[in-house]
Amino acid sequence: MPITPLTADLLPAAAEVVAAQTARRIAAAGSSPDGVDLTALAEHWLRSYVTDEDRFAFVALDGGTVVACLGALTVQLTPDDEGYTYMAPRHVLCPLGGWAARTPHDAVAHLPALIAAVRSRASDEGIDRINLQTLDADWHSGGVWRSAGLRPDTAFALRPLAAPAPSTRPLGEPVTIRAAEPGDADALTALALEEFDFHARHTGSGTATDQSPSTARRIVDGWLAQDDPAADAPTEPDSAADAPTEPDSTTDTAETTTDTTGDHLRERALIATAGGDVVGVTTVQVLTAPAESLGAFVLPARYGYVGLTGVAESARGLGVGTALAAAALESFRALPDPPETVGLHYVVDNALSAPFWSARGYAPALTLLTSAPRHAG
Questions:
Q1: Domain boundary, last residue among 149, 182, 197
Q2: Is 286 helix (H, G, I), strand (E, B) or coil?
Q3: Tens digits of per-residue pLDDT, 231-284?
Q4: Which of 22, 276, 333, 377 has the largest CB neighbor count within 10 A?
Q5: Residue 130 is part of a domain; what is its CATH number?
Q6: 3-state secondary structure of 282
Q7: 304, 341 in Cβ contact below 8 A?
């Protein structure tokens, strides 16, 4: 069972393996990408693992034939990067579109050796955290990865927009939900930093504790830029690791773009206030996966996205989070062309997030597994 680096001469054979795995994923999702050459797309996805300095891949050979492959990209962030607010500063990411096995039998036989090769390569670079995306519907591969020592880290969860929302408890006269305004910037920055720090100290997400207030303020300013005519052009994330603005990407190595068909051109913030103070925030936007991305085949191609959601510690347990979650859904329903699906990310070992979002109808669709240990606290 030779394991060898992916090279240009092995690209066509590796692309066939990825195409076969992709076809199984598409069939399981009930999609039908008519007229799409999956092998050509797969070769396009894989080529960067041969040409880009921050990417690498290994293949498993059986009798000289490629039967499995695993691609990875090295992520290195600084406090100035927005990704630093929700990801481990240094890690290796194995996107969904970068790994495949020719058959389920090959997955059992070869994926563990491939992840071991990636671990070794990352270790040589001083990186001890490996993250890998897998579809929740693919229990077979998910079981193989877990048997290889990976655990759930972050869930990308979905719900139908039309599904009923749980009833919200009365917030009382002093608490209101409204759109954020420029005058809320300082309070929102403090609330965002509180949320980043909570994940750093109370989860195994790997988020660093030395968060930059200037980076948090830059993120907040983006939420508040809606009334600025110069901000009307949509933005695209720089890489898979930056899209969308929660842990890792939902669409393998492809970028997501901000939808311009509705009212949400960029990420907007909704806030909860009590006694004049900002006590909670959630952000909303509509994202669209490029037609050539794997995510467009196996996950909703267009969806409402609920981003950073946090409630000040002093206001937790009062129904503020539930009201914000309901307001996010209402903001999508009010669009001229509402998305059919709403998605979000949550950290699996966050004792507050997982049960909260599950109770509000969000079911995991794609899970980021990690080699890092669970939070010890």
A1: 149
A2: strand
A3: 433 333 333 333 333 333 444 433 455 554 444 447 899 999 988 889 999 999
A4: 22
A5: 3.40.630.30
A6: strand
A7: yes
